[in-house]
């Protein structure tokens, strides 16, 4: 897979007020591969599967910026990794379904993600996990295919940054192409939701 974007405008959610922030990020080239391997149900209705994604996404040019003295300059972003673009993502999971009882579980790895165009602030790699299970009952009176389901996320209760909420061009003060000082600002992040469990009852009529 190869994707080339030109004159890319990057929208970003603002933390301090409503609306979106747009940065003219110029061109971006993305190459990658996405693979998923699974089987038919094998032993006792079990179906294992694995997924893998590799992504190489780079900025094609230097991004315009304003220095602390008010002059125009450029950040040295050409060749940097694009924001919100982890190089690797992988997952392993297993499903079980005998027609009445079902179960699914997955562990997923997400690689490092940059939150600035200068790649000077990032989310470290992290691992997520989730489990779901349920039971399908027989029809009962006017209830058609009633089901009870339990979904659980973040079984270990791990605490980490799970996504970029608002990006910036650079987190630290940086010298531009023409030698000017370009002030930095900190990006903001989403935090992983702690352990959660939800029970759902559903039926048709």
How many strand elements? 16
Count of helical regions: 0
- CA radius of gyration is 23 Å
Q: Tell me the span between the first and last alpha carbons.
A: 46 Å
Q: What structural class do you assign from the helix and strand content?
A: mainly beta
What does this structure look like?
- This protein is mainly beta and 205 residues long.
- 0% of the residues lie in helices and 59% in strands.
- It has strands at 2-13, 20-38, 46-59, 63-66, 72-75, 88-97, 101-110, 113-114, 122-123, 126-136, 144-153, 161-166, 174-175, 181-182, 188-191, 196-204.
- The strands form five sheets. An eight-stranded antiparallel sheet has the order 1-2-3-6-7-10-11-16, with no helix packed on it. The chain has a two-stranded antiparallel sheet with strand order 4-5. A two-stranded antiparallel ribbon has the order 8-9.
- It is elongated.
Brief rundown of the structure:
The protein is mainly beta.
Write the layout of secondary structure elements.
Blueprint: E1 2-13, E2 20-38, E3 46-59, E4 63-66, E5 72-75, E6 88-97, E7 101-110, E8 113-114, E9 122-123, E10 126-136, E11 144-153, E12 161-166, E13 174-175, E14 181-182, E15 188-191, E16 196-204
